[in-house]
């Protein structure tokens, strides 16, 4: 019903985009002697504070829709907060729509799988603080001169095959299976698969997609929980002035760590894989494979810098 209503409500519009920033995302990987030790706040860690925005206005200039993107987990609320809530993305969406009646707001997440909101743990007060920052930056961008998007999108898609660096054998799983925690439960589930005659996978599929709007803008869509190093590298090696990086796109089957992080270990590299039912961590060349796929999918014009 909603899809049909949207189709029936199509009208001529103008599309434009711009980029601002928000500062509450903070790298959450605490290292000691080059190894991951815990979640916390690393002031010097990799983080992407860009906040790109796409605005759709009718021919009279009225705002019909706005999409904003920010690279940060929606984890301002913690386990002690016994409420169902959209955290900062949901609160930001509601606030933007409240400030712009009749417009549809959408908040998407970029490559921020190693970033948490800071501060966090203060309940709805912290949520509303971060939401206001996003909504205020949205208003600032909407009042500025945005870059016109004059071409329809052209999409390209690639399903990649990534390899696991290590898949445990039966002896390793049996050693873990006696544990009374998530690791033990995971090991027992893998043993059940082996006992059914299944072979534990050595590879996993991974989606990479691009939308290009002529020469105006390129959107990259990466599957999974992607860390900040990816967006920072893509914007550094490609034309970052026209690049928008989305994560959690098409499929979310695991965390996607960068090459730099793999020797550090830790949650995003290996510990999280059991919660996704994956048998092991990804190989060190994963980052290069994904970046190469993005480069291959994008037109050559986006592979070099261009002054605005």
Q: How do the strands of the widest beta sheet line up side by side?
A: 7-6-5-1-9
**Average pLDDT figure:** 97
Global geometry: globular
Terminal residue distance: 42 Å
Rg calc:
21 Å
The proportion of residues forming helix, as a percent range, comes to 25-40%
Number of strands: 15
Strand content: 25-35%
Element string (H = helix, E = strand): HEEEEEEHEEHEEHHEEEHEEH
- Are there runs of 5+ residues with pLDDT below 50, and where? none
- Class per helix and strand makeup: alpha+beta
Largest sheet: 5 strands, mixed
Number of helices: 7
Can you describe this structure?
The protein has helices spanning 2-8, 87-99, 124-142, 170-177, 182-195, 228-237, 286-297; strands at 13-21, 25-27, 29-32, 35-39, 50-58, 63-70, 104-109, 115-117, 147-149, 153-163, 203-213, 217-222, 225-226, 243-246, 255-256. With 308 residues, the protein is of the alpha+beta class. It has a domain at 2-149. The chain has a five-stranded mixed beta sheet with strand order 7-6-5-1-9. Strands 10-11-12-14 form a four-stranded mixed beta sheet, with helices on one face. A two-stranded antiparallel sheet has the order 2-8. Helix 2 packs across helix 3 and helix 4 packs across helix 5. The longest helix is centred in the middle third of the chain and has 19 residues, at 124-142.
């Amino acid at each position: 019903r909603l899809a049909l209503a949207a189709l029936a409500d199509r009208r001529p519009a103008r599309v434009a985009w711009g980029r601002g920033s928000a500062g509450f995302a903070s790298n959450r990987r605490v290292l000691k002697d080059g190894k991951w030790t815990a979640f916390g706040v690393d002031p010097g860690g990799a983080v992407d504070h860009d906040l790109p925005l796409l605005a759709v206005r009718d021919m009279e200039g009225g705002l019909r829709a706005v999409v904003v993107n920010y690279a940060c987990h929606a984890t301002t609320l913690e386990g002690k907060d016994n409420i169902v809530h959209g955290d900062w993305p949901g609160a930001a969406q509601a606030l933007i729509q409240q400030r712009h009646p009749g417009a549809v707001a959408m908040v998407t997440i970029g490559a921020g799988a190693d970033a948490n909101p800071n501060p966090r743990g203060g309940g709805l007060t912290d949520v509303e603080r971060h939401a206001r920052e996003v909504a205020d930056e949205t208003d600032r961008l909407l009042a500025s001169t945005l870059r016109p998007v004059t071409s329809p999108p052209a999409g390209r898609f690639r399903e990649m095959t990534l390899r696991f660096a290590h898949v445990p054998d039966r002896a390793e799983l049996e050693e873990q299976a006696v544990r009374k925690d998530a690791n033990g439960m995971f090991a027992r589930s893998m043993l059940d698969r082996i006992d059914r005659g299944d072979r534990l996978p050595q590879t996993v599929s991974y989606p990479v997609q691009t939308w290009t709007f002529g020469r105006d803008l390129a959107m990259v869509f990466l599957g999974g929980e992607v860390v900040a190093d990816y967006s920072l590298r893509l914007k550094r090696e490609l034309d970052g002035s026209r690049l928008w990086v989305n994560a959690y796109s098409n499929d979310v089957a695991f965390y996607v760590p960068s090459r730099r992080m793999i020797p550090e270990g830790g949650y995003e590299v290996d510990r999280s894989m059991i919660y996704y039912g994956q048998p092991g961590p990804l190989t060190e060349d994963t980052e290069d494979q994904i970046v190469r796929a993005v480069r291959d999918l994008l037109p050559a014009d986006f592979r070099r810098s261009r002054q605005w």
